[in-house]
Amino acid sequence: MSHPALTVELDDATLADAELEITGRLMQASNATFLAELTTPAGKTSWVYKPVEGERPLWDFPHRTLGLREVAAYEVSRSGGFDCVPVTVYANGPLGPGSLQAWIDSEEDAVAELVDIVPSPKVPKEGWFSCVEGLGADDRPVSVIHADDPRLHTLAVFDVLINNADRKGGHILASQGHVFGCDHGISFHTDHKLRTLLWGWAGTELRPEDREAVAKAREEAPEQLELLLAEDEIAAFVRRADLLLNRGKLPRPRGQWPSIPWPPF
Fold first, then answer.
1. pLDDT (mean) for 183-202
2. Residue 202 Ramachandran class (φ > 0 left, ψ -120 to 50 alpha, else beta)
3. What is the pLDDT of residues 146-164, one digit of tens each?
4. Which residues, in sequence order, are bridge partners of residue 135?
5. Smallest Cα–Cα separation from 131: which of 145, 151, 148?
């Protein structure tokens, strides 16, 4: 059964008659990010609102485009059947235009079963991958690990396809048995920018369902991306899809670009 955050309907006509009210701010976010309540004839729902005016300029991404990339990630997820991004639209809000994403009431215990930080000597021998090691607050070795979970595997394939530069542990959500990714504002660059914690399947063969999802997204998503991304970014997306399908394997980390986001959580 689909999660409500994948099935909520929010078209232009609904948005035109809706009222969006800011109810809080997510202070840990690097850009201005607000919790908002959307009132429509169908009732009230909670959303994450990221106005363009709150975007910090980045040296390697065009300014005022992060919200559009959030929506583009949803369109790829939807068109390919990855179903790993909550419904996300571009809308006018109290602080101007920006992205609006269905709120996920993430379950902390469920997320901890997917990604975690543990003392390095206690990394599980089965069912987990160790992706980065470092020192904890007490200067003892710790490891960031992720589960060998098919839902995370799907997210890893999706990240390669959209060239996600920021798959931190905190950008993985879990709710009602479903795993979501969020914060896709720095994706779809024309250069290789993939930074992720989900390297456990690097170099492994694509599953049949992966190939099907990539092929569907490659066929259907470009038309949806025309108003969201630049032409060369859409062309790069198609090339990544073709490369995935032709090689039939997930890539390995490349040396010329950091492969792990910082901080990892």
1. 95
2. beta
3. 999 999 999 999 999 999 9
4. 141
5. 145
3-state secondary structure of 175: strand
- State the average pLDDT over residues 76-95: 95
Q: Do residues 265 and 168 touch, judged by C-beta distance below 8 A?
A: yes
pLDDT exceeds cutoff 70 at 259: yes
Alpha-carbon span 194 to 257, nearest angstrom: 8
At residue 205, φ and ψ (nearest 5 deg) are -65, 140
CA torsion sign, 146 to 152 to 155 to 160? positive
Question: Of 157, 228, 246, which is closest to residue 188 (Cα–Cα)?
Answer: 228
Half-sphere exposure of 226 (CA within 13 A, CB side): 4
Q: How confident is the model at residue 1 (pLDDT cuts 50, 70, 90)?
A: low
Q: What is the length of the chain?
A: 265
Give the separation between CA 135 and CA 142, rounded to whole angstroms.
Answer: 6
**Neighbouring residues of 56: CB distance < 8 A, sequence distance ≥ 6:** 30, 31
* pLDDT at res. 264: 75
> How many whole angstroms separate alpha carbon 102 and alpha carbon 153?
23
The alpha-carbon radius of gyration of the chain (Å, integer) is: 18
- Reduce the DSSP state of residue 261 to 3 states and report it: coil
**8 A C-beta contact, residue 194 and residue 216:** no
- The arithmetic mean of pLDDT across residues 55-77, rounded, is 95
| Residues contacting 93, CB < 8 A, separation 6+ | 20, 22, 36, 49, 51, 100
pLDDT over 90 at 28, yes or no: no
The b-or-e profile of 171-181 (16+ CB within 10 A means b, else e) is bbbbbeebbbb
Is residue 225 within 8 Å of 75, Cβ to Cβ?
Answer: yes
Q: Summarize the confidence of residues 7-11 as an average pLDDT.
A: 81
